[in-house]
Design goal:
411 residues, 3 domains, Enolase-like, domain 1, FAD/NAD(P)-binding domain, alpha/beta, 26 strands
């Protein structure tokens, strides 16, 4: 064991979210004494599970339930934590290897890990700066939604993707009248085919959520106090609105890296070892671009963390490979699963199983005797198995006739 921090290398982490802190956890496991670690986060908390914010909104969890590492954890592991809006890093000096926070705090590094995550995309429409118009990204957003749900009636969510539907469900459970505006005729159109999407919409409608499908937002209108009061659509219709949630996607937070002269395209470009074009600077999570891909789900972020920690600890044998990521909706009582190419093409074939009476739909896409995509609705028991077959490129020709009935029958 090293005797003092002066003999340790200095690792500075910009970002106190799930990707950055999972990397630190992996590093502490692999090489607990190698680094003197300093973490900067722009939220005044320890590390929490951001993907469980929808469960807090719906009332299934509390904020305390979703904390991964509280402030004491950092103390226990000898990590210096700078947390809060004034601790947001505003500059990286690659020549002198330092980072500077908004309040003037400076930290020197031998290795730098950028894990700045992403920011919500804000629709460029008139009225998007009105009071009552928010995104759904952090604890502050959830606190605002909870406050509105206890004193206001009409909520409108822009976006029929995962985050938008989770926000809509949570607000409906809190007693608000919720309408979802989506620019496609299908909910979760990047994850579900038409039969599964229609089943999902019907189930959410039974919960009291209304939908404006294939609709275009025209403007947000406010009252005399510059607070939102109505949503105007391109077809001329209007919706009463007290709270408007933007949930139309995220984009990588890469401005800091760009200012430091790191190469960026749609995100901070990294290689298979999660290094940027500056070999002393690594990046993981939603802020990166790897082999042309950007990331918004947690599974690839955790795999990146494992590979990055492997190299930071000088084991240096792992390489990050992007695999198809499964989609699941965090809405209690709704079971759906999607992975891979669930649409298919002229060179593929599909196997379907439908039981409308119990609300079950399955679609498997097969190409060259391999499973390349799957959509499950109502029964997701075999989702993990299908994902394994897909990732391992298993020859399923011997399983084909029973494949749609699941592992218990075909495996």
């Amino acid at each position: 064991m090293l005797n003092s921090k002066t003999k340790q290398q200095r690792l500075v982490v910009i970002g106190n979210g799930m990707a950055g802190m999972r990397t630190v956890e992996e590093l502490l496991s692999a090489a607990p004494d190698q680094y003197d670690i300093t973490v900067f986060g722009d939220e005044p908390y320890g590390n929490y599970n951001r993907i469980m914010l929808s469960a807090v909104l719906s009332g299934d969890k509390t904020i305390e339930d979703i904390v991964i590492n509280d402030r004491q954890w950092y103390v226990d592991h000898g990590i210096t934590l700078h947390a809060g809006s004034d601790k947001a890093v505003v500059g990286i000096d690659r020549i002198n290897r330092t980072v500077t926070a908004k309040d003037g705090t400076v930290a020197s590094y031998d290795r730098l890990l950028i894990a700045t995550g992403s920011q919500a995309v804000i629709a460029e429409v008139p009225g998007n700066e009105l009071e009552g118009v928010i995104s759904f990204r952090d604890i502050i957003d959830v606190d605002k939604m909870l406050a509105y749900s206890s004193s206001h009636k009409h909520a409108v969510v822009l976006g029929g993707g995962l985050l938008g539907l989770e926000a809509a469900n949570g607000l409906a459970l809190r007693g608000m009248e919720v309408t979802v505006i989506h620019n496609n005729e299908l909910l979760l159109n990047r994850q579900l085919d038409k039969p599964a999407a229609k089943m999902l919409q019907a189930e959410l409608e039974q919960r009291g959520i209304k939908f404006k499908m294939a609709a275009k937002l025209e403007a947000l209108r406010g009252n005399d106090q510059d607070h939102i009061k109505a949503v105007q659509l391109s077809d001329g219709s209007e919706l009463a609105c007290d709270l408007f949630i933007m949930a139309i996607g995220v984009r990588p937070n890469m401005a800091l890296a760009q200012q430091a002269g790191l190469y960026c395209e749609r995100g901070i470009v990294v290689n298979d070892t999660l290094q940027s074009y500056d070999p002393s600077i690594y990046a993981v999570g939603e802020c990166i671009q790897h082999r042309g891909a950007t990331f918004g789900l947690v599974a690839p972020l955790f795999e990146q963390a494992k590979v990055c920690a492997n190299h930071l600890s000088a084991h240096g044998v792992a390489e990050y490979i992007t695999l198809p990521t499964a989609t699941k909706l965090k809405v209690t009582g709704i079971k759906l699963f999607s992975v891979g190419d669930f649409i298919g093409d002229d060179s593929s074939e599909s196997i379907r199983f439908t039981d409308p009476g119990v609300g079950i739909y399955k679609k498997l896409v097969i190409k060259a005797n391999q499973l390349v995509g799957a959509v499950l609705y109502g029964d997701t028991t075999d989702g993990v198995w299908y994902q394994e077959l897909l990732e391992k490129k298993t020859d399923i020709s011997g399983l084909r006739d029973l494949l749609v009935f699941g592992k218990a029958y075909a495996g």
